[in-house]
Amino acid sequence: MALMPRRVKHRKSQRGRIKGQATRGNTVAYGEWGLQSLEPGHVTAQTIEACRIAANQYVRGEGRIYIRIFPTKSVTARPLETRMGKGKGDPDHWVAVVKPGTVLFELTGVSKEAAQLCFARVAHKLPVRVRLIGRRPTVG
Amino acid sequence: MSDATTLSAAKRERLGTAECRRLRREGMVPGNLYGHGEGAVSFKIGHDDVLKMVEDGHIAIDLDIDGKVDKALFKEVQWDTFGKHIVHVDLIRVDPNEKVEVEVPVEIKGEAPGVEEGGILDTQMHTLLVKCPVFKIPSAVVVRVGSLKMFDAIRVEDLNLDPDVEPQAPGDEVVVQVVEPRKIEEPDEEAADLEGVEPELVGESEEEQAAGEEVVANEEGGE
Question: Hey, is the C-beta of B105 within 8 angstroms of any chain A C-beta?
Fold first, then answer.
């Protein structure tokens, strides 16, 4: 089942603009390798699910995948063949708002080469350019 | 043990955001040195030098600011959004013999037999907080997983550390373990067919409505 919030305060939201870069969620926190976005964009719940399946099919039994984004924003759409007007459409799908720098997925228990191959499959499904990153060095 | 390495820096006379940005454009990194009752010193340092030092895992360094050498620890390293460039460093003065608390990276060595049995090597702790004299700070805590079978775990108390290096985490905390892979849930067709289902609105559940009515009743009763 596609991801979406259990409870929301408002059914519909304004489209908004994605400004700036990610200042949170921009490091590898749980795994050893991460897939970092280089562009702003909206990633739909369906896309996240497709990425999860693609990654799991590759790492099956070897590593573990972490999903670091969640679709919290609803996108509305108008039914087909309806005239304009009569108010805003109904919620159609859910998206995660992604800023440049956001870590989308993480992997653990696999080598760098395996992570590269796995994330290459995932990257094909994403609407943003991405790159592979590792953990930041620890000092202090 | 990490080798203290010397970094050459120059004192910063002009401070402020604009000046720091200008320094970064020139390939320098602004930084501050403080601690041990002496005043804070603002300095600038070559980006590539400090990046190499950080990537090599040197925690304790000798900082040479215009000829005055201080032993210092990295207190904080600030990175840009993409984690490529260092934008600022904070260093704290230390005495070589004093005990300090530092985060040391955990390094996994070897191949776990449990992984060949079909398990996943799950690293729970990527860094370990330790207390030790400055000159004994290890560059990494090496964890050998050569004997780790399925469902086995290496805990903090099992680590082979120098007697002067005291781990600050509880002894029973897991550092690395071999776990069974999680079963991949195949999407249930009935559950997947939820087109048009919307999340519940805050304040519209029966419990919340009942709670809201009680509040209204109490307010009316109080007047």
Answer: yes
